[in-house]
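As a warm-up, study this chain.
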Amino acid sequence: MRTHRTRTPVRAGRRTALLAVGALTTGLLLTSPQPASAANLITNPGFETAGADDMPHCWEKSGWGDNDFSFTTTSDAHSGDRAMKVELTRRTEGDRKALITESAECAPVVTPGKQYDLGLWYKTTTPDASLTLFRHDETAGWQYWTDLKTLDMRPAAWTEATVRTPEVPAGTDRISWGVSVYGTGAATTDDYTMEQVAEPVPDPGCTGTARECADGTWEVLPTQNPVRSMHSVVLHNGKVLLIAGSGNSEELFEAGTFTSAVYDPEDGTYEVIPTPDDMFCAGHVQLQDGRVLVMSGNKGYPSADGTIGYQGYKDSYVFDPETETYTRTNDMNDGHWYPSATILGNGDVISFGGLREDSTGSVTADLWSDAEQRWLPMNQVNQTWSYWGLYPSMILMQDGRLFYSGSHVFGNNIPGTGSAIYDYDANTVTEVPGLRNKDERDQSASVLLPPAQDQKVLTLGGGNIDSNPDANRLTDIIDLKEVNPSYVAGPPIPQGTVDHGDGPVPQTGDQGKMYVSAVLLPDGKVLETGGALHNRADPVFETSVFDPASETFDPVAVDPEARGYHSSAFLLPDGRVMTTGDNPGNGSWNHNVSVYSPPYLFKGERPVITSLIDSEWTYGDTQRITVDRPIAKAELIRPAAVTHSSDPNQRFVDLPLSVDGNDGNDGTTVDLNVTSNPDLAPPGWYMLFAVDAHGVPSVAEWVHLQGPAALTAKDAGAHVHDFAEAPRGKVTGPGRKRAAEPVPATVSGCDRHYGSANVCVPTAFPAEVGATAAARCAWLKQNEYGTLEVNGKDDPLRLDRDRDGVACGKGDVRRG
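Now compare it with the structure written out below.
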């Protein structure tokens, strides 16, 4: 089984005794290892000491894939007498690299949490060379860590490359690194250096209260959100598009009143804008030019007798942040109420799932072409005829495949393990194991953990609106760098309080939450907040921060507002988090807006990006910024486009640093090394944050990352590692062509036999509610449902025992 690198040294051929004697007479072969200098942690940094297998001491051959290659010790050195040349003369896939030997004798010792400055001198005849790192985990052994820098092509002159590592992950005791060549051509390297970054200055004093510095603080804004928005998109001008459509109100739908608003965090104002269609429960994603593609939405509410469910139209629009207007595109091939929306590395957008115009489930994949600016006809889009459900969380992997995390909306998950990898080019679906309680991950949240280079996904919480159990505390984590990836159990979500209608009480047992929101923060952590214990009922008040490095939760200050169904949370460019909405089962709406200031905003002055040479970035670039003081890291965060706990495009992309002259006191000139892989950072606008050693971020600057039309990872010369190459789950190709998937009309978890269409009487009541009319009516009264007229003649929940056409009347309760 092939892995992303070959650990067995590749032998280039046996040297003759005559060559060995010649080497001895030149004086290049020393009799004892050459030590590292006092500051340099590299042993034999200039290859002057010979070793085994025709390689210098403490260096080894490595690589994988189908290619022709050579490793040569050459006299064309930057200093001394030797340099190392790695050359590929033919390549179909894979790479070759000379690495520091992965041994206790040779691999430099490192300290978790510290950073290291790496440097080398090089010549290259290929643009396809990068500085790559491996780390030794004390439990799991040697494994790939990350690529830090793409080397500019320098065929003649020696050039110095420097870069700073991220903080060393927990459990790591040594690292190995070198230059990987992954295209035809050669890289010659010499004079490697590695030094630990100076210790940061002492922790700054707290600028707020002790509680604020430990847990952050929430503020409920004085101005309410004027629309019933359930879709939140952070625009590249710093404003926020809040889409409501009819806002889950049948009365507004019948009146043709469809709304959106643009919120400006700078002055706290809202601008309500004309909205051409009912974009209630549509899909949305930022295109690479910064406009917002909005797909499908609500063509019609369920019928009064409950025989027809929601219907998804084929309409699609593009929202322009400059003019704040919507423009109609061509239609999709199918209706997709509650669709997925994932931007690909070439700027295209793929969409799956949702409900069609006739309320059945869509089995059609739709593809938006960035080059043609339209939805492609069905015969130009690969189809598996699979039903992925509603809002399936489809996350773009570093090699262009899609990972379905198992997070979805409304009821049970897809058949099988509930998680899968979809390969569009091969048109195959491979099941991925390990997701616990896969049918109780309804309105869970999934997020690609920081940094995206690590390819780890966290899935947390969830419930099931049909069976309506207590929502769970489960978290599961998967490492997509593994050859055969599988979810493993993560730490449970901390418990908070739950309000059953009589005020908040502590959660008990295994009670967790669905409708959970997860937001990437610029310090590399994840904020999870909001939620409810049951289907559109029983709000949970709990907020915590997840640290990917330690895989632990830290409870922090709690949003004072209920944030259940139709709520959303998202990162603002100033580093705060904004939350909106809540739509309980009685149809009411919470228009209050909350803003969270994380603890990092109470740790003294923030770094300031004082200049940004260029806001237009391309893949593989080195971009220079200046900051007012030393920083520890910088990253790109893709702005939110979130609804229903789902934002599969959210990602945090590390920008390895090359710091000019940083001695711990200055170092304000910083070069940022941009990934060459558009599948790691799909084209579009990003928030650029600079973060100091205490995790305090700057205010974001906006940068535009793009490539040529129809860019692919291969076109960009990206160093794509062959991860998740051998998942052992069940593999399926395209099924038989079909029109749709049968879906119950009550798919939204609401029984439509009672009240108006925007009132949600649950199909299944919480477990603690008895199965009698009296118990159910008491629960409905406690949750302020009011008078419920019976639609049609059917009374499936037996709430109209006296058959007067009104559920839960006095006669119904007396009859039990």
